[in-house]
């Protein structure tokens, strides 16, 4: 039977077991040998990282060909207008590629949100707001690039779900094993 681990990756942790420079590695949190991340999440992003010992399952989760939806909560600088939301929904030309259309909606700050360490930068004159974006790709820094291109840079990014798996009640640094 395959092992599948859901991990709430904190800010400052790499999607690999070996630490590098100022970033921690997964070995500081998950003492399970023989598992590998199914996809990546940047060190400055937080949230759901799935790990497994099953190579075929790892490929199915990570490969954009399978179009597994990935749900992100993005705290952005400013309050996006309808034109920006429409652009995200249609697909954004990032120069090196055009994104697939995203499902996007504004949301209130999630009630289940944990404090980030270190906190994001706040500016008194510029408000922030939250977006929920669902994409079926997952290219390098894609959500951050999409929101920046529409004029609303991401300050904090949390991956909430991949396919049917979500963080639910996992606190940062916690993990749980699921049966598949």
Q: What features would you describe in this structure?
A:
The protein is of the alpha+beta class and 180 residues long. The protein folds into two domains: 3-64 and 165-179, Alpha-Beta Plaits (2-Layer Sandwich); 69-162, Alpha-Beta Plaits, CATH 3.30.70. Helix content is 14%, strand content 29%. It contains three helices and nine strands, in the order βββαβαββαβββ. Strands 1, 2, 3, 4, 5, 6, 7, 8 and 9 form a nine-stranded mixed β-sheet that branches. The termini are close together.
> How would you state the average pLDDT, rounded?
93
Provide the CATH top-level class of the largest domain: Alpha Beta
Count of distinct strands: 9
DSSP helical segment count: 3
Q: By helix and strand content, what is the structural category?
A: alpha+beta
CATH architecture grouping of the largest domain: 2-Layer Sandwich
The quaternary organization reads as single chain
Which word captures the global form?
globular
CATH homologous superfamily title of the largest domain: Alpha-L RNA-binding motif
Low-confidence region ranges? none
Core attributes:
14% helix; alpha+beta; Alpha-Beta Plaits; 180 residues
Topology:
Layout: E1 3-9, E2 36-37, E3 46-52, H1 55-62, E4 70-77, H2 82-90, E5 103-107, E6 128-135, H3 142-149, E7 154-162, E8 165-166, E9 175-179
Parallel strand pairs: 3-7
Antiparallel strand pairs: 1-3, 1-9, 2-3, 4-6, 4-7, 5-6, 7-8
Brief account:
With about 180 residues, the protein is α+β, with helices and mostly antiparallel strands. It is built from 3 helices and 9 strands. The chain has helices at about 55-60, 80-90, 140-150, and strands at about 5-10, 35, 45-50, 70-75, 105, 130-135, 155-160, 165, 175-180.
């Amino acid at each position: 039977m395959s092992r599948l681990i859901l991990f709430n990756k904190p800010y400052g942790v790499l999607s690999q077991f070996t630490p590098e420079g100022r970033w921690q590695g997964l070995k500081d949190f998950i003492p399970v040998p023989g598992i590998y991340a199914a996809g990546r999440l940047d060190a400055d992003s937080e949230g759901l990282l799935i790990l497994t010992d099953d190579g075929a399952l790892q490929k199915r989760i990570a490969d954009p060909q399978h179009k597994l939806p990935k749900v992100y909560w993005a705290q952005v600088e400013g309050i996006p207008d309808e034109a920006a939301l429409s652009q995200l929904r249609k697909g954004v030309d990032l120069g090196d590629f055009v994104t697939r259309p995203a499902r996007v909606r504004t949301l209130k700050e999630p009630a289940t949100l944990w404090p980030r360490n270190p906190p994001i930068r706040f500016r008194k004159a510029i408000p922030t707001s939250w977006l929920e974006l669902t994409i079926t790709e997952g290219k390098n820094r894609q959500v951050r690039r999409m929101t920046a291109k529409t004029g609303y840079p991401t300050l904090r990014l949390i991956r909430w779900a991949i396919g049917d798996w979500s963080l639910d009640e996992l606190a940062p640094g916690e993990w749980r094993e699921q049966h598949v």
